[in-house]
Amino acid sequence: MLKSRTISYCLLSSSMIATAAHGQTAPGGSTAAQPVPGEIIVTAQKRAERLNDVPLSITAASGAQLARQGVVKPADLEKVVPGFTYQPSSYGTPVFTIRGIGFFENSLAVAPAVSVYVDQVPLPYSQMTQGASLDLERVEALKGPQGTLFGQNSTGGAINYVAAKPTRDFHTGLDLGYGRFNAFDAQGFISGPLTDTMQARFAFRSEQHGDWQTSETRDASLGHRDFLTGRALLDWQPSDTIKFELNANGWRDHSDTQAAQFVEYSPTNPDGYKDQEPVLSAYKPAPNSDRVADWDPNTSLRRHDYFYQISLRGDWQINDAITLSSITAYSDLKVHAPSDTDGTAYNNFLLTIRGRIHSFSQELRLSGNAFDDKLKWMVGGNYGHDRTADDQRGDYTASNSGVGPFRYNAFINSNHQVIDTKAAFGSLDYKLTRQVSLQGSVRYTRADDDFTGCLRDAGDGALSAAFGALSSELSGSPTVIPPGACVTLGPDGKPVPIVRSSLNQNNVSWRGGISWKPDQNALLYANVTKGYKAGSYPTIPGLNPEQFQPVTQESLLAYEAGFKLTMLDRTLNLDGAAFYYKYDNKQILGYINTGVPFGNLPGLVSIPRSSVRGGELSATWHPVRPLTIRAGATYVDSRVDKHFLTPDPFSNLIDIKGESFPNTPKWQLTGDVEYDFPLSDRLNAYVGASGKYRSGSVAAFGDNPEFRLPGYALLDLRAGIETADHRWHIDIWGRNITDKFYLIHVSHVVDTVARVTGMPATYGVTVGFKY
Predict the structure, then answer these.
(1) pLDDT at 424 over 70
(2) C-alpha distance from residue 739 to each of 156, 175, 288, 736 (Å)
(3) Out of 46-55, 285-294, 404-413, which region has the weakest mean confidence (pLDDT)?
(4) Which residue intervals of 144-260 are DSSP H helices?
(5) What CA–CA distance (Å, rounded) separates 437 from 426?
(6) Where are the strands (E) in 520-599, listed by range?
(7) With the CA atoms of 296, 302, 303 and 304 taken in that order, what torsion angle do they form, in degrees rounded to the nearest 10?
(8) How far apart, in Å, are the Cα atoms of 365 and each of 149, 315, 380, 512, 550?
(9) Integer Cα distance of 576 and 564 in angstroms
(10) How confident is the model at residue 600 (pLDDT cuts 50, 70, 90)?
(11) How high is the pLDDT of residue 26?
(12) Residue 35 confidence class, pLDDT cut points 50, 70, 90
């Protein structure tokens, strides 16, 4: 819901936002220091603190700011979080990266390097995050490894969404929006007391719009959006010392997946089958138009994805110094998502993800303070149990779709896992003096991952027949593989019934830091952090069991020094940080050359040694009362530091030493300006603009021109009026108003190089009320 456009002169924060926050009760029963008007209270360290007192690099944004800037899903955080990038995988799975640290993988069931939470409840897989932006109080983006408090996979950072909470008085609101492509957006909430000790809040959002992509070769369109999400919150406080928070939320997505644009014909096996060559070699590269693409005729690209989560948090204030907290959550995700990745109307490759994930997590922690609040401490433990089923069906006709005279046009990549994770953690924050504090935290984690999977016949028997013939030739004895069975061949050339593997690893993440607060308006800090990300199994067409070998856990040693300053009579907040990361065994989806007849196939690789160095600066400035200016800049220099040979997308063996990470621009800039003014005693108005810029990067190692992602800048505009009592508002807005053409991904899946574009210009109007 859109909040008031009237911004107070002293609404300042080092997080690039201006919003008011109320005092909160910190764990341990002590009352958090009351903020001056406009300062932000965050829970980045799992306790309530002023943002300017937290010795970490954090960007925070209020729900009002997110709504004004059109941030409706995690991918949109690029608009407000410097250093954050979004990229879809080749099959549409979202990939989040902070300061160059992320995990690019096509699989549905992979733990990301940037973890996402809602009220500290984990959304452990990126596909689960689509509805996280609903009805927010704020969002907090923590940069750098966060493994000691948020788990072993947070090597890049953590995003914590804070939902708007139930209120003690009755409130309701509704926003209705209409825009380009016949887009209709409705969102609302209702909140209030049920009893003297219980409050509830229900929020919903419906996003609908028509097709925005057009076929390059025929009269057809694509791009329908149909997304529904809802959340029900119930807060119960039976006594002054006990509180429970129940959260039931979910979403369903019946939208079309985005089609790609054709770049060039490049067969995986140049000496292979030629069925596709007359059509694909005659295809012309798509024009630089964000609305033009192509996909298979008479093929539905409508996804059917469903997610729900139930969580319960309980807090018991044992005494004035100690609080016991428990967070229990269960999540369920079901995905059926077809993707046409070749950018043509020929069925060179259509992949459908059919997946299911069940995830249970339990956290229990004690937190408190001692020695007259000089020491803040926390100890706790986590348990997680995930069951994942990731089955990818491929339908295609390509240069490698057969073995000799035996042709096939479908297969299934099967990846099923059972993952158990146990962890124990603790943290200390001790004030040496009134100005100097020491921070330390540690987490021990053990992860046990049991994998079963294989390359499987799709049920028609064609793949089984082809691999049965290949097995007969390799093993020297006749082999018959039944339809629907695994066709992965073992060392003896015989098919394996199923590939089984286990990955059992443990690690110790830690963080140590020192901070100096010479006065209320300044903070300087330095941290050293060690973080880990668990190993992973790929979802790939494994011809032999060795291809299913997992990549082992990666580790990151991060050095960071930063400052947070309030200046110019509290009209300017300035944050900055410099960082250096030493990266061991970086996990990434690359390519493995399997030879004739299959050629280059996707596979996980582990880069032995790499590094990231850079800096960032952000500011919020109120030069005059009605004007708010926010700006942020991040510089990231990533590189592979050690010789490493790997195939590029075109099967050329290359040494990637000295290359930058894919999808890691060196420069990212964000900016926002808003001016508020009264029209009369009863009406206020505002005008605003926001923009972002990212420099060029690449979509894959190898520095191939086809895989370059040119830099670009996007501009959004907005304006609106509202009543002085904030009951009604009308807003007009435009996103990417210059209709800038830009790319967000390039891939070479089978026989084509294809690219995915960003959205074209959109614009509309929103009318809302709140009571």
Answers:
(1) yes
(2) 31, 26, 11, 5
(3) 46-55
(4) 147-150
(5) 17
(6) 522-533, 554-567, 572-593
(7) -140
(8) 11, 10, 4, 20, 32
(9) 7
(10) low
(11) 38
(12) very low
Kindly report the length of the chain.
771
Report which of 121, 43, 31 is spatially closest to residue 313, judged by C-alpha positions: 121
* Backbone phi, psi, residue 745, to 5°: -165, 150
pLDDT score, position 39: 62
Identify each DSSP E strand in 14-135 by its residue range.
41-42, 49-50, 58-62, 84-88, 94-98, 114-118, 121-123
Rg (CA), the chain: 26
Q: Hey, how many other C-beta atoms are within 10 angstroms of the C-beta on 219?
A: 6
Question: What average pLDDT score do residues 513-539 get?
Answer: 94
Token reading at 623: 């030069």
Top CATH class of 41-770 equals mainly beta
Q: What is the largest CA-CA distance in the chain?
A: 91
Going from the C-alpha of 203 to that of each of 102, 132, 169, the distances in angstroms are 31, 12, 16
Question: Strand, helix or coil at 310?
Answer: strand
* CB burial of residue 617 (10 Å; 0-12, 13-18, 19+): middle
Of all residues in the chain, the percent with pLDDT exceeding 70 is 94
Please compute the mean of the pLDDT values over residues 606-627 and round it to a whole number.
94
Q: Which residue is associated with the tokens 């059109």?
A: 70
Geometric angle at alpha carbon 578, from 577 and 581, rounded to 5°: 125
Give first-to-last CA distance, the chain, whole Å.
Answer: 12
> Which amino acid is residue 415, in one-letter code?
N
Sequence-distant (6+) residues with CB within 8 A of 239 are none
Which pLDDT does position 151 carry in this prediction? 80
> pLDDT-derived band of residue 599, with 50, 70 and 90 as boundaries?
low
Phi and psi dihedrals of 626, rounded to 5? -80, -10
Distance CA 732, CA 216 (A): 32
Amino acid 54: pLDDT? 87
Percent of the chain scoring above 90 in pLDDT: 81
**Across 232-238, average pLDDT:** 97
Q: How far is CA 371 from CA 148, 319, 368, 682, in A?
A: 24, 15, 11, 52
Q: Would you state the structure tokens that stand for residue 151, as one six-digit string?
A: 């788990």
**Pairwise CA distance, residues 590 & 601, whole Å:** 9
| pLDDT level of residue 34 (50, 70, 90 thresholds) | very low
The rounded mean pLDDT for the chain is 91
87, 97 contact by CB (below 8 A):
yes
Phi then psi for 464, rounded to 5 degrees?
-60, -40
pLDDT at 721 (0 to 100): 96
The domain ranges of the chain are 41-770
CA distance linking residue 386 with residue 424, whole number of Å? 18
Q: How many CB atoms lie within 10 A of CB 238?
A: 10
Q: Six-digit token pair at 438? A: 């020491």
> Per-residue DSSP letters for 235-259?
EEEEETTEEEEEEEEEEEE-PBPPP
Q: Which residues pair with 592 in a beta bridge?
A: 601
- How many Cβ atoms sit within 10 Å of the Cβ of residue 685? 16
What gap in Å lies between CA 251 and CA 230, rounded to an integer? 6
Q: How confident is the model at residue 150 (pLDDT cuts 50, 70, 90)?
A: confident
SS3 of residue 16 by DSSP: coil
Cα 487 to Cα 493: distance, rounded to the nearest angstrom: 10
Q: For position 713, what pLDDT does the model report? A: 97
Task: Return the number of other C-beta atoms located less than 10 Å from residue 626's C-beta.
Answer: 16
Residue 309's pLDDT is 98
230 token code pair: 């809802």
Confidence tier at 540 by pLDDT (50, 70, 90): confident
User: Could you give the CA distance from residue 111 to residue 365 in angstroms, rounded to a whole number?
Assistant: 23
**Who's near 237: CB < 8 A, 6+ residues apart?**
197, 198, 243, 244
Residue pointed to by tokens 């967070």: 327
Distance (Å, rounded) from C-alpha 673 to C-alpha 689? 5
Query: What is the identity of the amino acid at 485?
Result: A
